[in-house]
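Supplementary Note 3. Input sequence used for the single-chain structure prediction.
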Amino acid sequence: MSYDAKGNRPFQWAGKSQHTHVINDPFVQELMKRCKFPSTNEEATNDVRDHSFEVLEGGSRTLSTIVTVDGGYTEVEVKKNYPSSKVAFFQFGGLKFSLQDLENLSSAPFIHPDEMEKFKKLERFKLAIPTKATSLDSMSMIDSIRTPIIEFFNQERDGKTYMETLKWLVFHDFKRKSIDHDESLEEIKFGSLPNRNDQSYNDTVVQKSNVDGQGFFNVDGELFNLVDLFRFHEVVDEELGASGILGYLTNVIEHIIIVHCIKEIVTKKPSFLKRFLFIKDGPLGFFGQTAKLHKDMRELCNLYVKEHSLKLVGIEKSGSFVEHAEQITSGENACLEQGQALPLFNDYIYKHILPGPTTKAELAKMKPYASTSYYSGKLIYRSKSDRTWVLTIPIESCDEIKSLNKSSFANLDEILNAVDRLKCDMYENSIIPIALVNQLVSLANHPSSIILEKFAIQSMKD
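The predicted structure, written as C-alpha cells, is reproduced below.
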C-alpha cells in the first residue's frame, strides 16, 4: 500500500509501469486462461423459454394491507486526525397502508395532499453505535457495539420489545399451540459468545428458562445476551473497528421488525394475517455471522404459510441477478415474455448468472444456491405492464432450489399480482412502498451524513 499524505509530505503515487511485471508473469497468464464466465444471453434463451411460466391474473383477493420495511445507515468520522474515530447512525422504517387506498389514489383525477399523507405515516426506529476508535462508557470495542444493540432491542414500543420477538423467534415459540402440544425449543446452542477474562465460550447450550425478559443469561458467572446469537463479536476488532457488521445488522433489524408485526397479528387476530403482504427491501436471507437465523425464519414461514397464508416477498434492486433480468427482458434478444415469471433454480444460476461448473455431472454436485443463508427462492417476474422485478419468496426447503418451479412458492400468483399493482413510475422497475419508505428513512451522503457528523462531534464535546 502507498503512504498517505500527512503534514507537509505528499501522497505516494503508484509506479506507472509496474503493470508490465504482472502481464508478463507466466503464472498470471495461465490463471487468466482458466477463468470462466457465465453464459451469454443467447445461450440462456432456451432455458428461459423451457422453464418460465404464465402468471395468472385475479385469483384470491384476501390481500388488503401492505407492510413494507426498509433501513439505512451512514457512518461518519467524529475525529479526523490519527487515529480516526467513527460512529454509525441507523434509521429503520415500517410503512403500512391499504391496497384499496392506493387503487383509489391511482384512479383519482387529482391527488389531494391529504390523501397522499396516508402513505407517509411511517414509524421510524433509530440507532447509533460506535464503530471505530470510540468507546461507549469506557467499555471495550466489542461491548461498545453490543450494548446499544441490546438497549435498542429492549426499548418498549407499545408495551412490547424486539427482544421479546427475538426470543419468540429463536426458541420457536411460534410453534406453541397448546400446553399439550408444544413444539417450541427448550434450549438453543450459541456458536460462540464474547470472550471474558481470556476465556472463550464455544457451542454453549442455553436453556430458555435461564433467559430473562431483557435477553440476559448467565454462563459460569459471566453475563451474556440473546443478541450474541448475531456473532458480531467474532468480527469486531479493537483496532479496525466494526464497519463490517453494519449491513448485516441492518438486515437483521429489518427482519425483526417484520417478525414483530407477524407476531403481533397472530397473537391478536390470527385470521387477519392472510390479508397482509410483507415487503422487504432486499433478499430474504441472513448473511455473514447472522446466517444461522435463516433456519429459524424458514421454520416460521413454513408454519405460517400453511396455517395463516403468510405472504412475504423481498425485492432486489441491484446486483448480478438484476443485471441478468434486464438482459433477458429488454432489447431484441428478450426471451422472457410479458406476464411470465422465471424461477431461478441451481443449474440456471450457475450456468447463466454466476460463474460455476458447466457439465451436468459438475452441476449435480453443487449445493443449492445460498443454502446456508437464504430461506427463500429467487425468481424474475416480467409483468404485463412490462416491468421487471427480481423477487425472493419463502420456500419450504433449500433442496427445492435444485428444481425450483412455480409450485415451490405458496400464494405466488396473488403476490405477483399485488407487486404489479404497486408499480411506480418514479424509478426504473420500482414499487410505491419501497420507493416511499426508502425516501423517508434513507440517510443521504449530503446533507444527512455531514449534519450527523457535526451533531456527533458536538454531542461528544458536550
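The two ends are 38 Å apart (CA to CA). Residues 54 and 340 are 5 Å apart (CA to CA).
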